[in-house]
Amino acid sequence: MAEVPPSVKGMNDICAPEVSKWHFLEQKARDVLEAFAYREVRTPILEYTSLFVRSVGEVTDVVEKQMYTFDDRDGKSVSLRPEGTAAAVRAYIDRSQWNQEPVTRWYYMGPMFRHERAQRGRLRQFHQVGAELFGVNEPTVDAEMIAMLVALLVEIGLPASSLQVTINSLGEPEERAAYRDALVTYFSACRDKLDEESRRRLETNPLRILDSKSPDVQALVAGAPVLLDSLSDASRARFAKVREVLTALGVAYEVDPRLVRGLDYYTATIFELKTTAGELGAQNTVCGGGRYDRLVESLGGPKTPALGFGLGVERTLLALAEPAEAFEPGLGVFFGPMDEAALAFALPLAHKLRTGGVRVEIEHRGGKPGKHLQRANKMKARLAVIVGGNEVATGKLTIKDLATGAQHEVPVADLEMKVRGLLD
RNA sequence: GUGGGAGUAGCUCAAUUGGCAGAGCAUCGGAUUGUGAUUCCGAGGGUCGCGGGUUCAACCCCCGUCUCUCACCCCA
To answer: Cβ of A287 < 7 Å from strand B?
Structure first.
């Protein structure tokens, strides 16, 4: 027998009972996002590579070494999306969405792809729930989004006490550039005290030196200029407003001046949500996002303020301690026909219930009542209906309540009504 | 991309100094030829990740390789 190839590294199948947990999270996410007036947008998984290069950033790790990029058959370079914002912005511009409504709230959920070394909470095909809000410049909306995320995670079942909201402001790109220069000047002066990694970053991404784990480097960081201090009055006032509204909405947060995001398009407010709940390892950032006020314009649209977030589905599910079995739907009714004649008799009854929306399993392989009840029990059925010669002959069925053991005899004509009564 | 740990039944894991490959769960059958969830008995299921080496003999030791995993890095 030929061997089946394994699934691609870092890409997993998701089956029951685990998939029930996914359904639960996805439904909660829809409920909350819809309540905040977001509508779903479904964009392709494949985009032209240049879209990501121009939005995420040419020298970011994501674009430089993590994208699944290949030539389409017509020779154009395409990439599996590594994140969701770029495609949403592309669609926003493609559709001239600003001509249709002044404010657009979009959400999406689906797979993203990054070629990374897999570990707990980090896969090559992973899933995000994300949302983007276009057309509102007011800082109140930044706080609104963060508060929504906290509400969503609490609604999903993460203890509020396990959540940690971290925010920072990157200011306008010009301010960030000036700060970057100041940082390079500062660290260049003590270049010999930096570790190899930080020296490399001095050239590529000096802001990243700030969250180096090395104690020696951290000692230097303590004396480094702080981004927030070097922002303009306008940017600082804006950030203060975000904080004010967060407090008004009851969101506990902390400001981390060293919080920096790895995607180039971010401006002004950025945020991260971590949790200490569940089985997350080092990858305990469940959600990240921020403003990207220049991105729409830089991709060819009109100047449009915008912000968004990405929520890691796998990570959130890891944080959710409840076992997947708890989310399994169970069965309404299990039919156990004992032979072919009984199956012919029961199948239309099962069909009627099923098309009426009751979750029903019917055994097609025949068997004795004991076996049927074992299966019914294993499948978490509420009710079982054994059908044999007696039932076919008399037209009377016995409905067994698996929880209490009680049996109810009903004529075939009353089956659906009785079942509905018992399931309520 | 870098560094640790681990790969034995479908799943979770044992196997003494190198000496016949095991258990629980799951699956199937029976006790009970029409009544489960709680019993008892039995069965099937293995290239011990893969390849090479050492040895009379390797799940065990050595080398390589693949996969998973934890951490770094990066990020969701």
So the answer is: yes
- For residue A267, how many C-alpha atoms fall within 13 Å in the half-sphere facing its CB? 20
What's at A42, amino acid-wise? R
* Residue A278, CB, strand B, below 7 Å: no
> Cα–Cα distance between A409 and A395 in angstroms, integer?
10
pLDDT at A2 over 60: no
Burial of A205 by CB count in 10 Å (0-12 exposed, 13-18 middle, 19+ buried)? Answer: middle
- Distance, CA of A19 to CA of A25 (rounded, Å): 10
Q: Does residue A241 contact residue A249 with C-beta atoms inside 8 Å?
A: no
Q: Give me the interface pTM, i.e. the ipTM.
A: 0.81
- Give the start-end residues of each E strand in A283-419: 285-291, 306-312, 331-337, 360-362, 381-387, 396-401, 407-411
Statement: the CB of A291 is under 7 Å from strand B: no
**CB-based contacts of A74, cutoff 8 Å, min separation 6:** none
The two tokens of residue A150 are 């906290």
> In angstroms, how far is B32 C1' from A368 CA?
11
- Residue among A117, A116, A113, A115 at smallest CA distance from A125: A113
- Output the pLDDT for position A1: 42
